[in-house]
Specification:
This protein has about 1250 residues and is of the alpha+beta class. Helix content is about 35%, strand content about 15%. Among the domains are: about 80 residues, no CATH class; about 150 residues, no CATH class; about 170 residues, Cysteine proteinases (Cathepsin B, Chain A, Alpha-Beta Complex), CATH 3.90.70.10.
Length: about 1250
Amino acid sequence: MASRYDLRSAQDLDTSYASLPGTSGTSVTENSTPLKARILNQNLGGCHPSRWIYELLHNNFTVCDVFGRLRKTELNTPYPWEHPHRLMINGNQSYSTNSTRVLSSVCVDCHFHFVFKMSWDERHSQESCNPQQEQWPPSDARFPWHHLVWVGQESQPSPLVKIDNRQRNKYYPLVAREPFACSAGPCTFSVTLEISEPRMTREWIDLLLDHDTIRKNVRRAKEQDPDRYAAATDDWALQAPLNLNTYLKNLLEATSQENARSISKRNKRFFVLFGTRCFEMFRQLEFEETVDVAEDGVDGGTFTPPIPPRSDNPSGATDLGTYRAYIEDVRSEVQCIIHRGGQPAELCTPGLHADLGCAEVPNVDSVLVNITRYEIMGVLPNQPKEVVVNAYKRQWEMIPDKRKALIDALMSIGNDLNDEQLNEYAVTQSSIFESQVQSQTNGDDGGLTNQALLFFELQPLNDYKAQSIVQAFRRKVAQDPSCANTARNMLMLISQASTDDNYTAELVMEYGEGFSLPTAKEILGLSDASGFGPDTLDDVKEKIRNAKDKDAKTTYLEAMEKIAEHTNSTGLKSTVSELREMHGIAVPDGSSATGASAQAANFDLPVGLENIGNTCYLNSLLQYLFTVKPVRDVVINYDKFKLELTDEKIKERLLGGNKMQLDRGEAVVAQAFVQELSDLFNNLEQSDKVATRPSQRLANAVLLSTGTLLKETKSSAEVTTESQPPPLPTRPPPGPPAKENNDVEMITVTANDSRDPVDTASTVSSQTLVEEDSDRSYDKVETSPTTTEDQVIDTVMEVGQDEDVVKISRTSDRPMEISEAVEKPKNGTSQDIESTDVNMRDVEEPETVDQKVLTALEHQKRSSGTDQQDVEEVMGSIINRLQAAIRPSSVDESTGIQFEEIMKTFFVTTINYTKKFDDKTYQKEISFDRSITAFPAPKGSCSLYEALGRNFDQEIIEEDKLSRYTAIKTLPPVLHVLIQRSQSMGSKNGNPVLIPEILYLDRYMDAPHESLTFRKRVESWATASRISDIKASKAAVGSTIPTGPILESIGQEEDAKGSIAAVTEDSEMTDGVKIVEEDWSFDGTVDDDYLLVGRPSVNSVTSAGLPSWPKDIKDTETAIREKMDSELRDKEEALENYYSKLKSNPYRLHAVICHRGQLMSGHYWVWIYDFEQDVWRKYNDSNVEVKRSTDEVLNTLSTSGEPYFLCYVRDEDKETYVDVPRRRRPAPPSDTSFENLDADGDFTVTNSEPLKTSESPQELPPAYSEQNSD
């Protein structure tokens, strides 16, 4: 063996050896894909790509059973397929893009087709496995080679191997589709193998290779017409495949049906090589046949091929499953026949190895390949130690129950290779493993942890990741639902043995509070389902009915309850209750908790906000505004800012840069909103629960316009003048009358309930009913009945992985009859009912505007369905309410614009410049906005700067002959950026925007047009535009195959024409001037050979008059591509240098509001950064989570289309304007004294942190509860 010098010390080597896979503490990025996510749901190993290709070519995958299934299937096999396959490229069906690669091939020997569809996430392409990451000693953080794992194994038959009947047609007779994914953490690579049957039948092949019959035809033809067949020889008997190949080649090269070349049945070669015995083959190839029987009885008709349209694939490749692809497939099989006749074939397996990032292993011993140690490791004999250890690390994660066998295999392979370093590594791994198993067994009460691992079919020792343990738990419970309680106990044992808090927390979440959502879905068989509809419900009921014992039934019901809780489905909750009653299964103790507000809190986390009816977007904004000091100051110390509700003050108040007139209704609603917000802010600081509940009154004040509130009040007033009060379909029937009221009639009223079932359901969307002496909508909450006898509700619930609000669509509703008790006097009439029922109508004074809007605020009239308001609109509504509630602090004398704390905090001043092409100066328009807008790229990702550039940079409008741009005149301390994801036709732009932690806004600031700053900005616009053009050109070029080699090869063929011909054919010119032997271009005579539909004119230009074929096309193309790359690098470097100097206006990211779903429905949450504690928190309604890595959060936000509303704060002012208030902790009981008690003897709430005080908006106090707010 060749020696290798290693400059690392022995101590370094020992350190790298002395840790089992995944235990070195090295951080590894995990990038998931839908296929890759399924790896965790199974316990199957994978293999190195070289072995994967070897197993494929030899029909023997170690794990995937595709070949076993094919052996049991009746296949169209003109040749035996149980042999090592030799694959060659098939047709024009292979291509590459930035995120995909398709390789279409056919086996030379059996004609089976193998298509390899490779894909990866373009955003993470730099993190894909790469041989350049190879190193020794090995590292957990390096991934040199893919490790391919079959992901078709499921608890149910995989939909990926169910072949649609449409796919089993003549064009694409698919028999198997098997997906494989790379298991390396950062890698997103996957390959899907598609196998299809040969297109040519055995009968066709026999016709082409029936040499004896063809020789007889030649001899017979020479006897009957010796002059015509003078040039025919017995060699023609071997040329049927060659001729058919040429027919198909010309079909594929034809550009239109007018240029289609028909084959004359009387053609000499066609007549003897094919003749009537092959007519059916051409019919199956869909050639159009004409029949013209002459007097001699010979058919003189034609076969004309249909010309398939060119593919619209950007790469120019042929689409699979089309007629064109079918003809290419048949032609490739014909070429396989030719190659087997002696012409060598160029195999594509080297290219396949390159596509999979591996090297072909020569001279593989077929006996050694199937030895257990190589099968379990997933490698081939004689592969280098780096490959072996890479596979060992991947298999360690994939088949944790076989880790001891993996170490044994590692040691055996080391002996096979006689590699000293690999042997040393293997021995070290074995020693560590054995010692840890022994240590664990001796240290935990007789090996309880090991017993728990074995229960989950995991081999000791426990160095598994928490997620691996959780997956094993889910598999166990899904396979045997009756053991759920035992499985929870085993999970608890494993968690208690760990000293890692995060590890323990992940396991506790699985057994502490019932099943998690992913576990519930796996138990119910919903792991890959997108919805929970009637069919799914029937399947689950069937599982419960067939469950072997009560414990299994209980497991299914608890899983259903989790789905019902996640979807807020009253119908599903009711179904679970009915099933419990039907099977005699009681509700477990403690499962009836009313929600997050009833749970004790972690005082280190902020308080969450409960969703009160599709208000996740409002909750996100409220949590964010709670961290903005000027907003808190206005809300908590409202009396200092309050606008007097006199007609004079209201008339004088003008809002915003447009100086909008304030009316009284707006002012009243605004003050009510601030009062409600003040109560909420106090609750967020003082609550001892996980979450608090915003009042419905607050939500109505934000989400309903004043006009709507007044309109609703008017409608209510009109209702009271009717003869009888109308039924209230949302209220339950009243209870039985008191004994003394004997004259009570039950009036049956039919009403259509137009609400979504979720609105009638839970406290999330409940109707609020206010008692007469109450002034708060949350004093009493009365929920509607979950079911009614005459109401049928059919729902389909979208069940997601995360705790999102999901869309629930109702497919049918029937009118609901409600019995309403109406008290009736003994001798009264209906009119009497009115006079006694409504006793407050004695005074007919009209309500004031104040009374009307305040009354309307008490009743929820807004929709609680899935339609949502835009976050920016809701933010605008909140800001407008806050402005309308306070008086101005100053007035600009020149413009009359009134400023107050809200406007000073949020509003940005922009100038829109417009100039016609012929004008010298710009026209400008100044506006005050609460946010600036960024537009994501139409395709792919872009930076936030690029997205803002689409708003601020210069735009040339050719049709109007003008240019325009926008600049920022003044910036507020807190800047909002709206990522405008709304598109035409109501769709959402989900392309990622790369969000920076620090945003520099200098490039968008206003500058005089004659200044150097502006001139440089104009240059930057031109440079950015050029960069955009180059990238567009590169994208267009990158999606097509280089044409240079193709054109040059065609030119060489043209030059060589006439001198080389594999098969010649005699034919006559139509003018009788010259007789030539016909060739494969089918330019024969009309009456005897191939017919050219739309024949060229006899006056066409001769070859001598044609211009010479262009030279050096390939070199020219390469030079142009290199020039584009060079110019792009130069332009980007110049632009980056320009931007690097513009950093005098830094803003730091403080919060990001995110949205998942469609444009008008989905779920919102918010990330907020705590500058003091240096952590990010995710506020998701009631749940609050903590993330400490800014890089991780920004990477998450920058790789999806979820970020929607960005909140930045001026870097130098961040401590002044934002902070995250600390939750007040109750005083410990040991410190109780009479001074700590209030007048009622209750404990007072004290703050555990020193108070911050200030007198100005620049130093707003976070400990605001200590201030007076009354």
